[in-house]
Hints:
heterodimer, A: mainly alpha, B: mainly alpha, 2 strands
Amino acid sequence: MDYIIILIAAVFVNNIVLSQFLGICPFLGVSNKVSTSVGMSGAVLFVMTIATMATYLLHQFVLVPAGLDYLRTITFILVIAALVQMVEIILKKVSPPLYQALGVFLPLITTNCAVLGVAILALGLEGGSLLKAVFFAVSNSLGFALALIVFASIREHLELANIPKQMKGVPINLLVAGLLSLAFLGFTGLV
Amino acid sequence: MAETVNQTQNFLKGVVKENPIFVMLLGMCPTLGVTSSASNGLGMGVATMFVLIMSNIVVSLVKNQIPSKVRIPAFIIIIASFVTIVEMILEAFVPFLYEQLGIFIPLIVVNCIILGRAEAFASKNNAISSLIDGLGMGLGFTLALTILGSTREILGNGSLFGFKFVAENANTFILFILPPGAFIALAYLTVLFNKITSKTAK
């Protein structure tokens, strides 16, 4: 039951992009085509899950016993940066087709605050366990994927719309994101 | 004299021409996430400005010691150290702000403005220019956050910096302090900013 609540909360109620404002940069940056947004979502799912697993274990078995909790930010960002590099190298060797699909997005992910954000938020889960943390990461990346793909689909239609000159580009995208976020507000109280 | 003019321009570009929020659209996560009130926006702006100035100075001082292949990880460590300092200072002295900003304090580390300035400016210029660049960019960021925070607080809560100026039970646009309000307010502020700067440019 716990897990179902985590899933629904992360995907709909507290959507990581539209209500927690994490990962806005890729959300606005790589959402001009549905195909690229699918690729980005896949890369985020991949990295976020592995990164949360690694940082959770590191926090539980190294930082807390050593009393170095305050070094959390530094160690996490280093682990994530190193992990992204490693994933890139391994993918290139092991699965070239997957690398072809996700490769370009991987370097962008280091500065995606959603990955670091979820890694830190996962530490604060109630009755936390490794399994729960990983499940939390997977649910959040699904939430990210949902928001990104819906947004990209709307933007593809906007290309054809007649938009006032001053609103073109960034403002109209922000406005669309606002309306999307308003729609997600409707899920409040579901859990 | 030419030197001072350059430094003035160097300072002003961060505030207006290359404003990190309205023009360059960097660091959007904290911009949208913490600006539900003017004081939160100001607090976040000042915290980011501190990290930005300090990391700019340190990066420009050690730029010749860092091999260019590992410069990005080295920059990230420098930035993360200052973020940890800010985190500890805020927790100790302004616990209220620390609670309000929450997850967004450690996330200053991945704020693209800071890494962007380290890479684009501080790694090529001396410490003084980098300090001024950091000050200008930081001020531009702080101003943008405070304006966005004030707009949302006035419309959504009928108050500014916590001082209420509407009746206690008056109806306000609560939407603006909720997440969608952040996107919508920023969208219209960007339009306004573009309009004003394009007019003054002519």
